[in-house]
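Review box. Two proteins, two foldings.
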Amino acid sequence: MQQMDHWQRVEAAVAGAAVDRLPIALWRHFPGDDQHVDQLVAQTLAWQDRWQFDLVKFMPSGTYGVEDWGAVSAYQDAPNGARSIVEPAVVRTQDWHKIHDLDVRQGSYGRQNDALAAVAKRLGGTVPLLQTVFSPLTTARKLATEGLFADLRRSPDALEQALEVITGVTIRFALDALAAGAHGVFFATQLASFRMLSAAEYERFGRTYDLQVLAALRGKTRLNMLHAHGSDIMFELLAGYPVEMMNWHDRLTEPSLHTAATRFPGLLVGGLSERATMLDGDPESVGGEVRDAIAQTNGRRLMIGPGCVMPPAVSEANIAAAVRAARIAA
């Protein structure tokens, strides 16, 4: 088969058509550097230049969406490179009423799209570029940390009022990302899990606002990826979202790639355990996971990727093994 470029390969895989080789995309945080536009740009470009992945998931700090509302975050040497909320913005139930509209072109929100714009200019549209956008309920949880769950059940009206504001901000941020050069969003939900909420609770406080964001992007994006974080995810509920790609911890929680291929019509992104294999395994075990992912899906509608963000300590040898295994597959 004639060699494809990144776009041809990804779009063929989304459609379930034959590809010259499996697409692959790996992503990681850049702790410290993700607090500075120029450094985040440089790290993102160096990462892509080094590995030539078929998709670039832009990697702002996971707390960027709450800092303009007063939440304070810090990097505390988390193995996955993520920052933690050390001072929530919502401490008492009445604090939800303080969640006001924001100018997404200023502050933390503005910096993320400034950085993305510089990356997009350098890449020149040669590879799909997705801005990371958190679901409104995920942002609410980061604003209140574990206090969210009591408020969701005890004071739902206060939470819903805040979710309306957060949703509007999220939509404007996502639209600005597209204007800055993103081709879509990596839409991450961290609460669509039966370990955290019931299906009815997620329908009301999660899906309602998720779909408002995705509806606002309809017709304006080329590719969107949904990320379902955590264990015991609500896969059936999420599989109907209007996105082209879906990513979850397939090595840690149901469904398997094999089962998911019968339930989601788009591109499955996964196959690699970001900790057990990419971090703690060896190149042979990494290659084995890629080969197993191919066997589960017959190599169709599959992009090799991690279940979630890879730890910064993952070795170059294991990254190279994943890339090599994907690129020899046809």
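Next protein.
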Amino acid sequence: MISLMSLFTHYAPPAQAQTKMTIAYSSIGPMATGIWMAKESGAFERYGLQADILLITSGPISVQSLIGGDLQAVSGATNAVINAILNGAPIIGVAGTANRPYHRLFVQPEINRMEDLRGKSLGVTRFGSITDNLSRILLRKHGLEGAVNVRQLGGTIEVAAAFQNKLIAGAVTSELRVTPPSQPKILVRLVDMGIPYSMNMIAVQREYYRRNPVAVENVVRAYVDGLAFLHQNKERAIKIITKYSRLTDPRMIEEHFNDSATYLDRVPRAEPDAVQTILEFMGKKGVPIETFQDNAIIDKLTREGFFEKIYKKN
């Protein structure tokens, strides 16, 4: 006689298989925080994803890895995503992390105004990166384009090292990790310029999206769940930021948390005016946002009331 327990065991539905994914993020600044939170809070698993996350320290390189099929999704610089698509890459953004440029222009102590940069150098991670794009927009706004040298240095660590050794006069970045006696100061907060600018997109290959629409939707759901975790669990979020950002200074860790909570959009939609800023800089003004961003997932989650529910949960 078959026991009741064995009967239930025999007919229990199988556990749902999780979709394996590799997701890259292109910096260790606040734009990556939502991905970290989704991973460490278990959000990816809650939405049926077995996700490995990894750092690729450049928007253009992370996008190239996505195009090459090494990744299933990437949180990378919007300008890198746009540039790749304009050049024929079969990828599409499905969410946007922020629509304001929260970066700052850090400069050496002797620099007191933008004009003081004339004939000097600013460091960027790579040409075509967010830091490069924002540096050139800032220089153009102040009539210094061509009058200030822009140097490609590789990554945020290399930019900081160049600043530390006074090889550059400044850098546009989210944070500058230097040690005394180096004394960087903030000359410009780009958010104060009032320019809308799409910082990062979560992008996927178009064919992967077509074949795996539920998995891609669940990446966005998990990302938003991670943002909600950030806002609702500061103490744990601080520990996660410390782990991934490699910061040791409590003040800088707190600043990273505050920037993440302030500038990461709770509804991750890349707004048209924020994308058009990038297109105008590239000389592609007026190209429809649909060329780069599929808002179908964001629209669906909005209709469902997903965002309201996720940010209200305990």
